[in-house]
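Re: [help] complex structure
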Amino acid sequence: MDKEQIKHFVARRVAKELKDGDVVNLGIGLPTLIPHYIEPDVRITLHSENGLIGLCAKGEGAFPDEERYVVDPSGNPAGIESDGVFFDSSLSFAIIRGGHVDKTILGSMQVDERGDIANWLVPGKAIHGMGGAMDLVVGAKKVIVAMEHTLKGAPKILKRCTYPLTGRGVVNMIVTEMGVMEVTPEGIVLTEYNPIYTIEQIQNATEAILIISENIKPMC
Amino acid sequence: MSISKLVSATEAGDLIKDGMTIMVGGFMTCGTAMSVVNEIKAKDLTVICNDAGYPNEGSGRLIARGQVKRLIASHVGLNKQCGEMINAGKMELKLQPQGTLVEQVRAGGAGLGGVLTPTGVGTIVADSSEPTTLEGKQIIVVDGKEFLLEKPLRGDVAIIRGFVADEAGNIRYKGTMRNFNPIMATACNLVIAEVEKIVPVGEIGPENVETPHIFVDYLVLASKK
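Output below.
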């Protein structure tokens, strides 16, 4: 799979994790593809940390006249759905930290077997800032990392993160083009695998020791 | 119609003096009072803003002109100039998680001694020896769980962006322009509100006012683009 295929493959699998009624916050990049793959009978509410629920694409909103006043978390023009609500940043992060976001899905540079995540700062590279990511990983009920399994072959799922952390012990699930993993107190459990890879290949691309689930099944 | 709080953007910009701490509302310039910010001439400023805006835009305008001594923000990645100023040693950056930053401002405006948040525990945000971390961080354990004590933030001047004001200075916002604006309006000694229009008192309606007029010292009409 090329990079683009991987993104869509991962997005399609993560979409299955979203249940009707979920309040969801999506990180930048790959996670923004997920809404395209949600089943038609599943309705989710997208939370946008800059101050709204009911985020949708510009032009698809219920209030087109308002759209010049609406941006998404990347600062790009966006829309709001008919039941959407605007609020200030304090309420927006009360929604996040207070456990009112069911799922947050974000990309990452590193994740480890303790559920630590490092996705905001690479030593020696330009500083971008954490924005809302540290609040999201602490506050959302379920944290799903959606990413490529390796960085050009180098493992990103590690025994211990080496980059500065975004959050400690916060990741619940990891979805990559190779498989679906759950972070448990015992370690990272591989619950689904992509049949184009062998279990051995998946382990070789992973620094953390994978626990193979008794009920492991093919990823689809 | 005489509106006692109404001043020009230039007059408002001149209220900001060298060395002041200012709060600038907005999220990636959405909800930033550009007309006022562009008129600020003071230097050595401490700027509290969610982000660094874009190059030469929003709070990025102040950064581009070398007016910022210290920036406290959550995200600066969309303004390359900001990184260049920091690397050149011309500006200091302190990074706070977005939800923490807004609660520090809220605490400052609400007379609280700070807030306890789980956000940032176990990260460099909790370690004041890190160059981008604010001074004086402490871990406080409540019922066995670790929290970071984040101290209140206050400023000399808040520059906020509303949609409509009435002649008394009651403010209403629009869309995602709200973000930090109503919170910052509570946390500074002086508040300048830039709005798109000013209506007679009563027209917004007491239930619909989001920032009460008692917080607002000056009104500026946004320049049309």
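Residues 11 and 208 of chain A are 23 Å apart (CA to CA).
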